[in-house]
Amino acid sequence: MGVKRVLEKYSGAVLLAPYGLLFIIFIVIPIAVAMGLSFTFYNTIQPPRFIGINNYVNLLTVDTAFMQYVLPKTILFGLVAGVGGYVLSFFLAWSISQLPSAPRTVLAIIIYSPSMTGAIMLQNVWQVVFNGDRSGYLNYILMQLNIIESPVVWLQSETALMPIMIIVTLWSSMGVGFLAILAGILNGNPELYEAAYIDGVKNRFQEILYVTIPSARPQMLFGAVMSIVATVNASNIGVALTGYNPTPNNAGQLIISHIEDFGFRRFEMGYAAALSVVLLIFMRFITVGANKLFGDKEGE
Fold first, then answer.
1. Taken in order 139, 232, 70, 49, is the CA torsion positive or negative?
2. Count H helices, E strands: the chain?
3. How many other CB atoms are found less than 10 A from the CB of residue 169?
4. Where are the domains of the chain?
5. Cα–Cα dist 192/95, whole Å
6. Is 86 within 8 Å of 224 (Cβ atoms)?
7. CA nearest 272: which of 33, 46, 75, 69?
8. pLDDT tens digits, residue range 131-178?
9. CATH, range 65-256
């Protein structure tokens, strides 16, 4: 009986133990190591040498590429591709939720399928579209329409590379978050909509604002988190498209690319770790903001 009571008392801890162990191994320890390395000079050959906060000082004062290009472009990319992709996923999910079951299923599969495209396939497809000679699909179409007279090297252009990165990211961003939002909208209680119109809701916009979003709040939060993850994962798309790191004239250089440049090309692991910590802090603030918007407010 004593053993049975102990098992019943600590059953929750026993069930959570594997997850807790994996969380410590793959999340807590790597973050702790990265934070520790961020205060060192480490070139992967010699042992790490403690240098205090020099990496963070250099990040703000010496690394002109970070302050002039990487940080502003990362914020721009995050706002347009991240926030814009999230808004687009909600709009598409709400739009197709208004359709009958059969066309809704077909459209959901079509919208979701680009997110399953591997990085290599994604790179090859869009490199053909934006090829800088006459064989590139975009150049061919624009020249046939007499919009341009000669081919444009799109992926080497300072003005065109960032919009191309955003387009490619948005095209492939309708993933699991999009499906979760769609499921949340479809599972909404129809009685809530009827009650809302009785209480004074007059149009579809008010219906979305006061009924759809609150009723799908958990799925909206999950979609926001997945949008953050997808945006971070897509941050190296500029390097994948151009084949260069740094990207030409830092036109598409984001913080992930910057970390890879210093960590795996220059082997300045200490500085790369400091950049990773900055990225972690940014993601933490964004996640907290998403939780404030869509988290459970019943306990407040």
1. negative
2. 19, 2
3. 22
4. 65-256
5. 19
6. yes
7. 33
8. 888 888 999 999 988 888 888 898 888 888 999 988 888 888 788 888
9. 1.10.3720.10
